[in-house]
C-alpha cells in the first residue's frame, strides 16, 4: 500500500514554493522521496524551503531557482535547471498565484486585472509548455486553483476568472496530453496563508472567530500540510487513473 504514494527518485518542480501552500507541497513531495526544485520570485524564501527539505531528507534533495512565473523565458529556464541538476523531470506543480486586491470588478484597476491573469492563468500555460519539452511517459502536472474558480466571491472577480480559466485549461490539457501526461487541479479552501491575510486584511488573531463563523464540517481551517497531502495523491501512482479533475480540498462540500 505504501508504494502507492512512493515517488522516490522523481524530480518535481513546485512554483510558489517559498511559503504557505507551495512550501507545504514541496515538503510533502520531498518526504515521499522526490527531488524538488523550489521556484518563486523571492530568492530568500525558496532558499529557506530548500534548506528545510535538505535538513530533513539529506543534502541535495532540493534546490532553489529564482523564477518569475509570468515570464515565459523564466519558466523555460526553470525546466532546464531541473533537468540540468537532476537529469529528468517527472512532476510539475503550477502553484504560484493569488491576488492581494479585493475590489468590485467595475472599480478594479486595469493593471491589476492583467497582473492577476498573468500570475494565476498565463503562468500555468507557460509552465505546462515548458515542462512538456522535458517530460516523459507517466509524467504528472498539478495546478493549484481555488474555490473562487467555481463559486462567486464578490470583490475577487478578477481572481475567480483567472482560476476558472485554470480549471478549463486542466480539462482541455487532459485530452491533449494524455496518455503520456496526466494533469489535475486542486482547489484549496480557506488556508490562512500570508497572501490570504494581506488580501483580507486579517491577522492570526482574527482566525479563531472566522473559524467559528465558517462552521466548516471538518471542524477547522486548512493547513499547507492538508494541501500537500492531496498534492501527493495526484503526483503519486495512487492516482494513475485520474486526469482532468478539479478537486476541492476545503473541509466542506
Description:
By secondary structure, the protein is an alpha/beta fold. The protein has a single domain (2-248), classed as NAD(P)-binding Rossmann-like Domain (Rossmann fold), CATH 3.40.50.720. 45% of the residues lie in helices and 15% in strands. The protein contains 8 helices and 7 strands. The chain has helices at 20-31, 43-57, 72-86, 110-132, 157-177, 194-200, 207-214, 224-235, and strands at 11-15, 35-40, 62-66, 91-94, 139-144, 181-188, 246-249. The protein has a 7-stranded parallel sheet, with helices on both faces. Strand 2, helix 2 (43-57) and strand 3 (62-66) form a beta-alpha-beta unit. Helix 1 runs parallel beside helix 2 (43-57) and helix 4 runs parallel beside helix 5. The longest helix has 23 residues, at 110-132. It is globular and about 45 Å long.
Short description:
By secondary structure, the protein is an alpha/beta fold.
The biggest sheet amounts to: 7 strands, parallel
The tally of structural domains comes to 1
Order of helices and strands: EHEHEHEHEHEHHHE
**Fraction of residues in H or I helices:** 40-55%
Query: What distance lies between the first and last C-alpha atoms, to the nearest angstrom?
Result: 27 Å
Mean pLDDT: 95
The tally of helices reads 8
Q: Count the strands? A: 7
Q: Approximately how much beta-strand content do the residues carry?
A: 15-25%
CATH topology: Rossmann fold
Amino acid at each position: 500500500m505504501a508504494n502507492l504514494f512512493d515517488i522516490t527518485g522523481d524530480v518535481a518542480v513546485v512554483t510558489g514554493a517559498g511559503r504557505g501552500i507551495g512550501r507545504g507541497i514541496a515538503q510533502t513531495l520531498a518526504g515521499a522521496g522526490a527531488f524538488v526544485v523550489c521556484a518563486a520570485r523571492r530568492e530568500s524564501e525558496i532558499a529557506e524551503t530548500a534548506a528545510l527539505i535538505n535538513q530533513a531528507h539529506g543534502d541535495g534533495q532540493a534546490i532553489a531557482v529564482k523564477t518569475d512565473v509570468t515570464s515565459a523565458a523564466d519558466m523555460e529556464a526553470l525546466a532546464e535547471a531541473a533537468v540540468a541538476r537532476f537529469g529528468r523531470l517527472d512532476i510539475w506543480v503550477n502553484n504560484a498565484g493569488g491576488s492581494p486586491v479585493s475590489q468590485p470588478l467595475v472599480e478594479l484597476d486595469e493593471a491589476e486585472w492583467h497582473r492577476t491573469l498573468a500570475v494565476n492563468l498565463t503562468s500555468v500555460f507557460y509552465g505546462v509548455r515548458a515542462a512538456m519539452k522535458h517530460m516523459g511517459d507517466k509524467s504528472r502536472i498539478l495546478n493549484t486553483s481555488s474555490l473562487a474558480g467555481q463559486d462567486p466571491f464578490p470583490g475577487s472577480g478578477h481572481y475567480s476568472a483567472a482560476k476558472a480559466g485554470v480549471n478549463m485549461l486542466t480539462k482541455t490539457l487532459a485530452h491533449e496530453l494524455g496518455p503520456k501526461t496526466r494533469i489535475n487541479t486542486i482547489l484549496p479552501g480557506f488556508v490562512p496563508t500570508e497572501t490570504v491575510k494581506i488580501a483580507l486584511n486579517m491577522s492570526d488573531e482574527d482566525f479563531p472567530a472566522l473559524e467559528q463563523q465558517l462552521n466548516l464540517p471538518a471542524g477547522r481551517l486548512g493547513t499547507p500540510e492538508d494541501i500537500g497531502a492531496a498534492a501527493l495523491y495526484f503526483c503519486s501512482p495512487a492516482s494513475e487513473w485520474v486526469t482532468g479533475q478539479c478537486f476541492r480540498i476545503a473541509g466542506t462540500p
